[in-house]
Amino acid sequence: MAVMTKQQAKKFAEMSDFFLDLLNLLKDKGVINNEEHRVFLLIGYEKLVEHLEKKKVISSKDAKNAMKSGFASLVYSLAK
Amino acid sequence: MYGWAGQRLRVDLTKGDIIKEPLSYEYRKKWIGGRGFNSDIIYNEVPPEMSPFDPRTRVCFGMGPLNGTAAPSTGRVTVSCKSPLTGGFGDSNMGGHWGAEVKYAGYDQIVVQGKAKKPVYIWIDDDKVEIRDASHIWGKFPRDADTMIKEELKDEDIHIMLIGPAGENLVRFACTFNDVYRAAGRTGHGAVIGSKNLKGIATRGSGSVKIAKPKEFFEVCNRLRQRFKNDPMKLALNEYGSLCLINYANRDGWLPWKNLQWGGTPLANNMSGETHSKTVLKHREGCYACPICCGRFTEIKEGRWAGEYFGGPEYEHSVPTGPRVGIIEDANDIWHNARLTNDLGMDGIETGAVISTAMEWYQRGLITAKDTGGLDLEWGNEDVVDQLIQDIAYRRGFGDILAEGASRACDKLGLGDKGQYYTIATRGMALPGDDPRGLGFGYGLSFAMGTRGGCDHLRSLCCLELSGALYPGLNTKYLGDERPAKPTTTVGKPYMVYYEENQKAVVDCLNVCCFTTHWSYAVLTQDQLDYFNACTGLDLTLEEFLEVGERVYNLERAYWARLMSGAREDTVPERFTKEPMPQHVDYQTNVGATLPIGEMLPKYYKYRDYEPGTGFPSERKLKQLGLDYVAEDLKPLRKKYMSEAEKKKKKYYY
User: Fold this and answer.
1) Chain B neighbors of A48, CB-CB under 8 A
2) With contact defined as beta carbons under 8 Å apart, do B75 and B102 qualify?
3) Apex CA B442: angle with CA B441 and CA B447, to 5°?
């Protein structure tokens, strides 16, 4: 199930600083909990991508792309 | 016990007491060491209203669990106190070998309090600790005092922490050295040490540091040493020292020319690492266990300073009394000025900053030769710079006023807001020789937010924007985006600064050199956790590890909050926000840039969970970090900070 709409993904991809907003959205959607929100803020993007892959929120291929091309790729994966 | 020695040495110079205090497992886990141990002591034992020169104040020397091991570049020591320059929280750290020696003697931290009746030094010979007479070395340069103490103790291999004459004379930006040339430069703790009549601490340690999991530990160390072999920043630092930055800084418009009125000079190559290596480099030297070896030794071969020999200079040590004061034609003048500030025991950054500020006051007619005792403060006047460095250290004439630091000097001269505009300082401390309009907007944000005052190139140390481009994929790994690697963009900078501040704080708790973890990114966060866990036998997770950094950062921020310093003081000098960078070099890349600090601050506050009105850490955040007592301390202060009376106060220092 898509975590966000394509329109939201587009908006994210245009943001100049996205990480906190993305974590907030993932928390609101129940993808991560409060504690995970705190933890990923501390430890950064790569660990978030690994978590999303492990939880099967995104595929392995999407995870690879998210690390190669950055968050713009990730947010579109989350809109699939 | 593994990693840590397990005890703190406390020396009370008033009473002559020498006390050894055990450091509990919980305490070590909560603060790790170095900056963490020190910040805890300063917060809890030095009330914000106490004068930095009150005998009851503390000066702390913190080592980390890795000091004295084979992990790369683990020789650093953090020195902390209530800063006499800013009046707020202050710390600085230094390389060399002294930190490892203190660990071998069996201590993780030294806390000095009280005031001796006459000059003394402390002699630590493993578990034997003495307070000895230092009358005969009072007034000496660190290089001479070092030799005299070694002769007195009949041991050339001991390591010694010392202050110079400036510390004895309570110059508010006096600093500390060990191994003669390795300086903890910033925030003026040398004056606090001097106020205690303490000249230095000589140390001999014959013990060792036990490693919990030697096989894993050495595997990590070997992996990292292999990585250093081809690391681009390591190669540059080894070849040219931190002077490798000069031409790069000049191109990108952040080399401070004449008090940062410009971001470069056509003659910058005169003092580049390349030129230094060809002309005056005597030899290279590394600190304890360092694979980089960025240290230089310089011998001036010709001109009026011929024959001078000293350890250094570094970028931040030579730029302030070079281009920042308009000196560039003869690099030997720059090397000489760096040698002089070292010998006299002063922070090179603040020394150059206060002189260059005075020069700009002079340029703009805010002061005249009447104020300066007849000195002609024209840009580039080496005779005057040479004299002023000495007059500051010995507090003579106009130098006595400048010895107070730029912001206080401005007030003493009655120059008001107009004068403060040119001080290029935040919270009472001058910014280093890096113009954020070119160096990077992340750095600019750090300058506003640094928990030791108007620094700081070493607080967030967001090298993800300085050297990030040399490590493709690294910005994405941490921040999810490569665009923040570009210095002059606000993209991704609030999160970059938040991440790097926490990361640098934990590095300072380990007391590992940031040239291995930030400038060079050979030692990544996971590597740091790996060697920490293997060394100590703890099994911290990555989030627990980085949370220590966040805890330290918030504790320091809370210290400022207790001084009524918060959101209104989170600023940078107006020069950066109001004056578009002018062109001074043909190939300069940042012409017209200003620092859009307002675009970054609100988002940064959200990452930090700072209260929007006060800028104080939220109660929720403090409790989350196990700092409930700090949350209680701040409770009554939140309303006070927002009162009309407080809003009217202008706070340049505390």
Assistant:
1) 480
2) no
3) 90
Average pLDDT of chain B?
96
Q: Nearest CA to B567 among B651, B626, B483?
A: B651
Residue B486, CA distances (Å) to B144, B341, B490, B643 in order: 46, 34, 9, 40
Helix (H) or strand (E) holding B363: helix B348-363
For testing the chain B interface, which of A15, A19, A58 should be mutated: the one with the most B CBs within 10 Å?
A: A19
Q: Name B46's Cβ contacts closer than 8 Å, sequence gap at least 6.
A: B57, B58, B81, B82
- Cβ within 8 Å, pair B495-A20: yes
B494 and chain A in contact, CB less than 8 A: yes
Q: Provide the terminal-to-terminal Cα distance of chain B, rounded to the nearest Å.
A: 41
Residues B86-112 have a mean pLDDT of 97
| Short-list B499, B498, B497, B494, CA closest to B598 | B494
Tokens of B535: 């060394």
B33 within 8 A of B132, measured Cβ to Cβ: no
In the sheet where B176-178 sits, what is the strand order?
B128-133, B120-125, B198-204, B159-163, B176-178, B182-184
Which of 1.10.569.10, 3.40.50.2300, 2.40.50.180, 3.40.630.30 would CATH assign to domain B241-430?
1.10.569.10
Chain B residues with CB-CB distance to A71 below 8 A: 480-481
For residue B487, cis peptide bond before it (omega within 30 degrees of 0) = no
* Measured distance CA(B617)–CA(B609) in Å, rounded: 6
Helix (H) or strand (E) holding B229: helix B214-229
Chain A, nearest residue to B502 by Cα: A42
**Residue range(s) of every CATH 3.60.9.10 domain in chain B:** 7-204
Question: Which of the residues B474, B495, B606 would you substitute to probe the A interface, choosing the one with the greatest number of A C-beta atoms within 10 Å?
Answer: B495
Nearest to B478 among A17, A46, A74 (CB): A46
Q: What is the largest CA-CA distance in chain A?
A: 28
- Residue B312 tokens read as 């250094």
- Mean pLDDT over B512-523 rounds to 93
| CATH fold for domain B436-648 | 1.10.599
What architecture does CATH give domain B7-204? 4-Layer Sandwich (3.60)
Query: Can you give the residue ranges of every domain in chain A?
Result: 6-78
Angle at B291 between CA B286 and CA B296, to 5 degrees: 30
Q: Which residues pair with B197 in a beta bridge?
A: none
- Three state DSSP letters for B505-542: HHHHHHCCCHHHHHHCCCCCHHHHHHHHHHHHCCCCCH
* pLDDT digit string, tens, across residues B301-349: 999 999 999 999 999 999 999 999 999 999 999 999 999 999 999 999 9
CB contact under 8 A, B495 and A19: yes
Residue B651's pLDDT is what? 87
Tens of pLDDT, residues B544-599: 999 999 999 999 999 999 999 999 999 999 999 999 999 999 999 999 999 999 99
* C-alpha pair distances (Å), B182 with each of B178, B288, B296: 5, 11, 11
B132 C-beta neighbours (distance < 10 Å), count: 14
Helical residues (DSSP H) of B397-541, grouped into ranges: 397-402, 406-412, 416-421, 436-439, 441-449, 474-479, 493-510, 514, 525-536
ipTM: 0.98
Tell whether the model's pLDDT for residue B456 goes beyond 70: no
**Which residue spans of chain B are classified as CATH 1.10.599.10?**
436-648
